[in-house]
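I hope you will forgive my troubling you with a question about protein structure. The record follows directly beneath this note:
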Amino acid sequence: MQTSNMLAGKVALVTGAGGGIGREIAVAMATAGADILINDIGVSLTGEGGSGSPAEQTKQIIEQRGGRAAISTESVSEWASAKRSVEAALDAFGRIDIVVNNAGILRDVIFHKMSPEDWLAVINVHLNGSFFISRAAAEHFRKQESGAYVHMTSTSGLVGNFGQANYSAAKLGITALSKSIALDMARYNVRSNCIAPFAWSRMTSSIPADTPEQKARVAKLQQMTPDKNAPLAVYLASDAASHVSGQVFAARMNEIFLMSQSRPIRSVHRSEGWTPDLIAEHGMPALKASLLPLDRSPDVFSWDPV
């Protein structure tokens, strides 16, 4: 199957498509034949300011390559504006078939110093934004009995990371949202999947590079360009992936991972029931060998990208 027409006749709404991973996904989907609604409000990494110019740049790239694109500069973090973005796709192209929830900001702070404002800002864009855009599109997907969601999650949520309680919580929440969408909308032939992308982009440019070790890590990350995530997004949005739903993938350089989801790994049983003392004496020692380590994403993905 040729990528060049894998999304022919479809309309995709890509949030945060003014740069980085979102732009590469939007361009790749346009190359695969889709019409693109570019959603981007042009804010800074921390969610401040606002300019439509990044979206305009993405639109120019798509049109220079023979594709069709329109722009919405509405925020994803408000229900009314999210609905307007979906309506913009319908106004421009008459339908909507694909939603890519990619928009995001960062407010990295160690947990005990994180302000409520830092927490809410990140949750509102990532988690609430993914819900609002997805929910606004759901009515149209349900009526036409087809549609595909591709959500950007992160190993910061799937595994863990320092100083990202807000981001990690939002990203792990998105995986649960995706699974719920997949379950609830399967009857309408609608699919929902997640990608945990690895890429050097604006979202990772805030990683410190002060020590030799940090500089070496950043150098590795810089090899993982945002476009490496786009082929998987195109595939998951296409009819070729009609049998794939409720899954979590990761894309890292030239590697694609199917990620595990929470399932029981070991149990202990006592017919008489448990007391706290019995748990301490017998229950936890039996489970101890299966306890998961307090690791982070770089500990799990510890080898060099190839």
User: Anything to note?
Assistant: The chain has one domain: 3-258. Strands lie at 11-15, 35-39, 69-72, 98-101, 147-152, 190-197, 248-252, 255-258.
